[in-house]
Amino acid sequence: MKKWVDYSSKYGLGYNLSNQSVGVFFNDATKIVLDPNCYHFDYIERRTTDRQDVGKEYNILEYPNTLQKKVTLLQHFRSYLEGSAKPKPNEKVPEQV
Questions:
Q1: Which domains does the chain have, with CATH numbers?
Q2: What whole-number distance in Å separates Cα of residue 72 and Cα of residue 97?
């Protein structure tokens, strides 16, 4: 891991890997990982029946509406970790995921 930020009190843990991938481990135990080109991402959730992780691949322009808040948070984490955004105390972010 190259860099990380802990917002687990509200959202989860964001990280930037040495290959330039960015990901978030959300408080609900789902995960999202954006590829280095910032176009495709994997969304991983754990099935309750057998506790197996199940992942699906999407692109940043087309994904289910149910993932909108998590994709927005991923983009916020990415901006912050890459240094292109500074945290703003009054910045609006989606409510608890």
A1: 3-81 (3.30.1120.30)
A2: 11
What pairing do the DSSP bridges indicate for beta strands 40-46 and 53-59?
antiparallel
pTM for the model stands at 0.80
Distance CA 51, CA 84 (A): 37
| Between residues 32 and 49, the one the model is more confident about | 32
Give the other-Cβ count within 10 Å of 41's Cβ: 23
Closest residue by Cα to residue 77 from 93, 89, 66, 65:
93
Give residues with Cβ within 8 angstroms of 54, minimum separation 6: 44, 45, 46, 47
